[in-house]
Amino acid sequence: MRIFWVRLLRIFLLPLCLVGFGWAKADEANEGVYGKWRVIKDLTPEGSITSKSEQQIRAVIGKTAAIGPDKFAFNGSECRRPEYKRSVDDTVEYFYREWRVSSSDFPLGDRVTVVDVTCDHYLIYPIDKNRLIIAMDGVFFEAVRLGAAAGGGTASAMRAKADSGVNADIFGAWTIDGVTWEKGRVLTQKQAKMLMGMPVYIDAGRFVYYEHVCDRPSYKRSQETKSAYFRGDWRSDFARLPLPDKLTAVATECGTIYPVSRKRILIEDNNGLFFSAVPLQGNEAR
After folding, report:
1. Which of 17, 60, 109, 175 is 20 to 30 Å apart from 195, CA to CA?
2. Rounded to two decimals, what is the model's pTM?
């Protein structure tokens, strides 16, 4: 009789164990997309069909997404215990077949991993461990991981600590609050307005703003008088820039950063477009 009950118990528990094992395997497969993310820009390609207005799309930039095995929360949607169904496809064929758009502007390889979220029809496309694309209603947003590590090991930790000390005046999370001219053309009011409020992230592991993403950037600092720094340059009207007479310039692969004060920086991209930025309030990554 005792043997009978043991066998019956095994029959009952085996399916539960298999289900639990399946959940564990699914969670392990999706670890790369789990975490907290912030939207940094709109990647929607030309020709994509959406019901969202330009204003609605613009309002999503800067928002955070919480993705985990117990909850998916983004842009007003929140689902408990969502499913993440993964598949891999040819990048070009997939985006043409499913969205009727070109994939040429997406930072993806020849093969795309598709993560279908059972929450308001969201789709996730991982780019790398610190970046992914979130798609909804024909709109595609690039997001970066919040609190991403600059690297592993003692050497990386020491470098990050050293960089943080030297570059404490620029490291942190910022938001664009002003845009000025670019060489060869003047931004329209509409173009400038689209850039306002975009987040900027600067730390030892990344420099992210507008359409620029630099991993492990080098920060080369120099000091010079404003008149000498801009002498002979096409930016002849440098007096318009709110910089001290003796300025600090921090050159990177993604542009140059000019600390103005504890509460403001200027960023110049490689095309000569200047952004003014102030600290981003309530940001988890700061």
Report:
1. 109
2. 0.59
